[in-house]
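User: I'm writing a short methods note and want a consistent example. For Roadblock/LC7 domain-containing protein, I'll paste the sequence; you return only the structure tokens, no commentary, since I'll be parsing the reply automatically.
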Amino acid sequence: MKREVVQEFLNQPGVAGIALMDGRSRPYFFGVDQTLNFQQKEALAQGIQQVVQTTPPGFEYFEFQFSGHRAYIYKFDHGMILLVLATGELVLATYAPLIHQLRAELKHDLTNAIATFRLLAGNLSLSNQNYWQPTGPTGPSAPSAPLPAAPWHSPPSSPVQPERVPAPPPVSSESIARDPVLSSPVSEDAAGAAALLPDAPAPTLKELLTAVNQISQFTTHYLGPTVVANYWRSSRPAMEWLGNFEIDRTARITYTGDVPALLQTLSDEQQQGVQDWTRAFIQRCSRVMRDFSTLLDQGVLDNRQKAFLALSSL
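Assistant:
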């Protein structure tokens, strides 16, 4: 690996930091120590590895937002991954040939890539290190491992072309009210009052869809729709009725059974099934986002929704 190639790449405007990981040895980060603590870097690396392991062959890289910066992930053979963190000052016309050159250098000696890169980068200065500044809390309460929100990209010669899934807009009460599938017939004030009553009626399927989709769409802002959809699928309990729910590529959950059932109240068994599913989903997300439950408790659900999903303790 040539020192000049690494030096030129690290010193280009807009490059905030990089990381190399191979899934075996400890990931090597350069230029991000000012923002990420040890636990955050470990969680980020673990989360990226999990996503990479589930991607189909033929896709070389993807991009996502991380703490106000753009992140690019590049795959190599033998499980090697290169992470590049960039600011808004990055000029793609300059970046493209330099990242191509750096990847070519890494491919020459993947076996010793991390050790060689550590040796070279350790003796180099990152001229724009001050660009990488915290945009939010970085202590123990900060989200620790946001994951990709954009799909993998395949090279032009690949026969497989991924569909780009735009990140959904922030969920608001107005947008939910306009959606016939997600809207709930209970206002926020009425719902909060009803949750305190001992004889509050069981939720309808429509109310349930409202609640789980609010959770789902909120989570996509941290983990991305692809990861969230996969987490819903993998955490679904083995209950026949739950098989009537479909999760699309934007992490939107719909009911595929009889339409009139949307207005019917749930049986105790059905409500328990959804509660178990929701809890399993939250536990799965908490593995990569240490404070996911705390974030979810900050106004995502009203009191009644928390009650019928058995999440009052969030």
